[in-house]
Amino acid sequence: MSRVLGLARRYWVVTLTVVIGVVGIALAATGAGWTVQWLFSAYSLVIAAWQAVGMVRAMLRREFGLDILAVTAIVSTVLVGEYVAALVVVLMLTGGDALEDYANQRAKRELDALLTRAPQLAHRAVQGRGYQDVHIDEVRAGDVLLVRPSEIVPVDGVLLSAETTVDESSITGESIPVEKHEGDTILSGVVNGNAAVELRATETASASQYQQIVALVAQAAESKAPVVRLADRYAVPFTVFSLALGAIAWAVSGDPVRFAEVLVLATPCPLLIAAPVAFIGGMSRAARNGIIVKSGGVLESLSRARTAVFDKTGTLTYGTPALTEVRVEAPFTSAEVLGAVASAEQYSSHVLAAAMIDAARERGLPLHEAEWAEEAATNGVVARIQGREVVVGKFAFVAAHAPDARRTDIAPGELAVYVAIDGLYAGAILARDRLRANAKATIARLAELGVTRTMILTGDAQETASHIAAELGVTRVRAECLPADKVAEVAAIAERPVIMVGDGVNDAPVLAAADVGVAMGAKGATAASESADAVILVDDISGVARAVQFGKDTVRIALQSIWLGIAVSVVLMLIAAFGFIPATAGALIQEVVDLATILAALRAIGGRLDARAAPATASLADPRPVRAAR
Known about the structure:
Helix content is 50%, strand content 18%. The chain has 23 helices and 22 strands. It has a 7-stranded mixed β-sheet, with helices on both faces. The two termini are 41 Å apart. 48% of the residues are buried.
């Protein structure tokens, strides 16, 4: 009930029009029918004047729509005494505007949440008094700050502590934790590892990386041009034809009522309503399939897209490191080493721990409890498992317990975890972020849908990005990008509209800057989801191809519905020009046309379309979903 009241207040003009109609019926029923004409006529002229002001303002901005037909129809019906027809036209006009507004506002979210998630406090060192919490705006270059375990770094700075491990995925998109040593630069927005560290601020909050991302998102969102309403493309020719036909009917018959009768049937509700209804249906279909589309204009842009740009980590890849190889030293076996590592990693908080445990379970290896275990922050873990000492971690950490340890060769994008058992080097376990199983099929499907150009933009190293691009057959790749670099690259693309697909905070600015930003929202950052135009709720990249398909289906159905409305309206206008359809009857007939148009547009909801597309959708689905990290 509260939702209905909210909609009634929001679309108050529609509500008021209905109330005026009910009051008129009540007056007629009580014998005061003579007041109905004055009530309906006065109200209709007020609405016409209000619409005319908006129409003039739009024309000054060189925006030409269908409002002139509606205003003319309202005025002409009032002047010839067809006041009931005038109110019906008002209801159609205001109802169409409300429906379009509802379509544009559905699923929109404000970017303000990005600001609220930014770090607000910093722990500043005060001589002789330890650390004091201050607002990050008070931090100055040179201040010494404490960053606690798992905290977001508040400002750009230089590490003063010996070492730490940080998660830079929010800035660069790289899923593997990065080691930082004394003197290394640490950007704001990254997440500290398991050890508290000190850093010296090198920038103020406003000049730091995370706050620049916030500013880029806001700037890009404001610079994006709005999509022109689909029906407005037919406004000028339809308006000219309708006015000309009405004028000819008036001139030939000598009866001004003919002009009103033609224009009542020319009231462009099929054009005003068909597209919004189709787009709402398309948005509902997308939502049912796990894709939130934030406006009807997004579906239109998706239908015309020519270029797709992808982030790598978490988008083309799963975004979580997974075991790729177990390299063992005699006399140890792969099962023995992996089982020991997984058992020890049960007591580690490292990002790779879950991957090792999952890999052991997938191979049916038992996990044993430790007699004792100790984690050395940023280095590894030592545990006694079934009477044996198991050491897992960095090479230097393992080499301190096993002097015979030696480094193993790793490929770009790989990470090695070294293992020692009872003082002997047992081998190394390699992990890397895996390419999504359906990424190549998704790119191929996009090409079939007309999105023939693809590109990869990533903050990763060139070698890693080139390797992924080669596997996918993508020839255009730009690596080692910061958020501002991604925005510049997308802006320079000539083949538009451009779809940008990403999942992290670092992708938020370019998602807002692209013609269509698509966020992988299942595990992605909220900032990316809020700055994007569409959000894929399921962790499956094939949703990008489905979104383009939904856009094409929706626009096709909207155009079919528009042309259905135009064709029927033209036939009825021709009949009315000969005086066979009175104005009030014409307004009611036009409501029937509206109903037919709406029913045609509702096909965009797509139940049957989804059923027909089920085999193709199944072939695109990811056959190897990733387990959520613990």
